[in-house]
Known about the structure:
The protein is an all-alpha fold. It has 14 helices and no strands.
Amino acid sequence: MTSSTASSATSRPHPFEGRVQDVKVNKALINSLVMDYLVSEGYPSAAQNFAQEANIQPRVDAESIQERVEIRNAIYGGDIQGAIEKINELNPQILDRDPSLHFSLLRLHLIELIRTFPSDISPALTFATTHLAPRAPTNPAFLEDLELTMSLLIFPPENLAPPLAALLDPSLRKDVAKRVNEAILTSQGERTRSKLLELVRTRAWAEKKARDAKKDLPAHIGLGLDKGREVQEMREDSVMQGNGEADGMVT
Length: 251
């Protein structure tokens, strides 16, 4: 009897969870948040499919999203020169107005040259001398980044210190691609971060404030995004491997 009572008490949901279940969610609002995410993050096929399923209209045309996707995929694939050309075709002022982003793209191209020609330093030296060296004195951070990158020419790739190994990690491509995507969105008068991501950040901030104030909350409050996070990671892996866009979305 005691064991049964204890088991029942253990399985009883926290009052907070009951209040969450009582909240009525506006389906149209949820659909709008999902569509906003797909557009902002650059998934045109998924946006079109979701628009048809949810019977809603995306706030921008698929072509403008596709332009960002092509630039992102070029960066993910290591074609930095191609990405720069596409950015300039889209809006030449984007890089003119953001020297830091322009330098990051040029440095990433230098890294790709070093990766592609490990036994021949001539292409990397020529590119660095022509395109990066003139810009380096204009900003101490540029000079530091250039010096660090040129160190890749000195040390063997199998024995690199963590700061150097990070330069060859594919995650650097993702970081630069994210900055490019945000710069393009800004140039088009769009938000640089989707409403959904902002909502998740706000929710995390609110939970921290509540816990700091010793409010009665469950030990763990899940976002219900575990499956979505797995899909997001698989999608990013697919794009990084040159497969473009993965359309499978959790809706």
